[in-house]
Amino acid sequence: MARTPSNMVPIGFRAPKFELYDTNSKKKLKSDNIFGEKCTLLMFICNHCPFVLHVNKEIVKLANQYQNKGISFIAISSNDILKYPEDSPEKMSEVAVKEKYIFPYLYDQTQQVAKEYDAACTPDFYIFDKDKKLVYRGQLDDSRPGNNIPVTGNDIRKAFDSILSSKKIVSNQKPSIGCNIKWID
Fold first, then answer.
1. Domain segments of the chain: what residues?
2. What is the pLDDT of residues 56-81, one digit of tens each?
3. Which of 103, 127, 131, 146 has its CA 20 to 30 A from that of 153?
4. Residue 158 three-state SS
5. Tell me: the pLDDT tens digits for 28-44?
6. Phi and psi dihedrals of 32, rounded to 5?
7. For residues 13, 112, 58 and 23, what is the CA-based torsion angle, rounded to 10 degrees?
8. For residue 98, how many other CB atoms are within 10 A of its CB?
9. Does residue 185 carry a pLDDT above 90?
């Protein structure tokens, strides 16, 4: 299990626009139409990564708790599906149903979106404000597979609560750790 950290792009980074296939709705979605009123959690995930499997239930819990408060959730998988067929769009649809994703699960076939966001690992989390400027990037919480720390979503939860109460987000943001994105050769 590789342990790849987030690249920690600079705060204030503006979210690049994209249009990707959503494996939930079976439609192409434009970022302009799915970013949230208050903020957006954009995450790079995949079906097979043990780090993602470790936090999936908490991601769904957060979405159920915050999505009706003007916060959008967007998941993107950018892995090479020739080498990792378990990350194919068909399998993504199955995982979205099984895990009860209530948010788009987008397929980045060319990996262009992952490159534009400088994504490095799965899971990799970014929170953009209503103006699509980065206000948080990093980990969900301190839990990792095997470290016996409970999954709480605490770091993301604190960022959401700060945004919703118009407070400054903590500046000590820790990188996410996960499997590297499986790049196409």
1. 4-180
2. 999 999 999 999 999 999 999 999 99
3. 131
4. helix
5. 999 999 999 999 999 99
6. -60, -30
7. 140
8. 10
9. no
pLDDT bin (cut points 50, 70, 90) of residue 1 is low
- Over the Cα atoms of the chain, what is R_g? 15
Greatest alpha-carbon span in the chain = 45
In order, the DSSP letters of 15-81 are: PPP-EEEETTTTEEEEHHHHS-SSEEEEEE--SS-HHHHHHHHHHHHHHHHHGGGTEEEEEEE---T
For the sheet with 177-180, list strands across it.
4-5, 177-180, 121-122
> pTM for this structure?
0.96
DSSP state of 87: G
Closest CA to 184 of 126, 110, 132, 100: 110
